[in-house]
Amino acid sequence: MRAVVFIGPSIDLESASAELDVEFLPPVKRGDLAELLARPEPPEAIGIVDGRFLQSLCISPKEVLEAMDRGVTMFGSSSMGALRAAECSPFGMVGVGKIYEEYFSGRIDADDEVAVTYDEENLSALSEPMVNMRFAIAAGVEQGAFAPETGERFLEIAKELYFPQRVNRTVLMLLRREVPEDEYARIAAFFAAGAPDTKREDALLLLAAMREHLDPAVKPQIKPVEDRGAL
């Protein structure tokens, strides 16, 4: 089956290509689905992980619905894909991953939760998505790495920042002014050791779901994502 996946800062091309042999395109924008559907042989499945929303008009739910009306199976996760899947899954779009579940349930609803700035050349993230921070803090609290109050204040500080300024080290620097030194050391050590990257984990789950859809005889090859905290 012909398939296309739109990716960007959530997962790098090398990692994505190792999981699924399809056509990968940069973050989706308004009009991209129409171009795919206009091909002599349109894709039979499309996955949306990342999308544009400042540099270009973002993809609309209507475009997703039009693709599904044409018989395309649509998948979404992680970032723009999670947003559109939460809106369009009642009509048949396949939502995948924890971030999609947060939006679909209504536990989070702001677009800026998944927003990041990124390098246009290599599509690498230059800031941290708020939703990743939420899952990281939930995991840290569950592990007892730092006090729940410290984690809550970390998230409050992050949410107050404009999304391009949301970088873990910036939030930690601001948090340091408010918490005891030993508590700061604990949360700083947690992030230094490597916090969960939920956007990437969800992108891998989308690729696994598409792989199974494209070839049902092939069993998923990636292990289930460890539950390291919930929002």
Radius of gyration: 18 Å
Q: How would you characterize the largest beta sheet? A: 5 strands, parallel
Number of strands: 5
Segments where pLDDT lies below 50 for 5+ residues?
220-231
Helix and strand sequence: EHEHEHEHEHHHHHH
Structural class estimated from helices and strands: alpha/beta
Cα shape: elongated
Q: Helical region count?
A: 10
Strand residue content: 5-15%
Mean pLDDT: 92
The helical percent reads 40-55%
Instruction: Give the distance, in angstroms, between the N- and C-terminal Cα atoms.
Output: 36 Å
Domain TfuA-like core: 50-166
Organism: Amycolatopsis oliviviridis
Protein name: TfuA-like core domain-containing protein
Pfam families: TfuA (PF07812)
Report on this model:
Helix content is 45%, strand content 8%. A five-stranded parallel β-sheet has the order 2-1-3-4-5, sandwiched between helices. It has ten helices and five strands. It is α/β, with parallel strands linked by helices and 231 residues long. The two termini are 36 Å apart. Helix 1 (13-19) links the parallel strand 1 and strand 2 (23-25). Pfam families: TfuA (PF07812). Residues 50-166 form the TfuA-like core domain. This is TfuA-like core domain-containing protein.
Question: Which descriptors would you attach to this protein?
Answer:
alpha/beta; disordered C terminus; about 10% strand; TfuA_core; about 230 residues
Summarize the structure.
InterPro entries: TfuA_core (IPR012924). With about 230 residues, the protein is α/β, with parallel strands linked by helices.
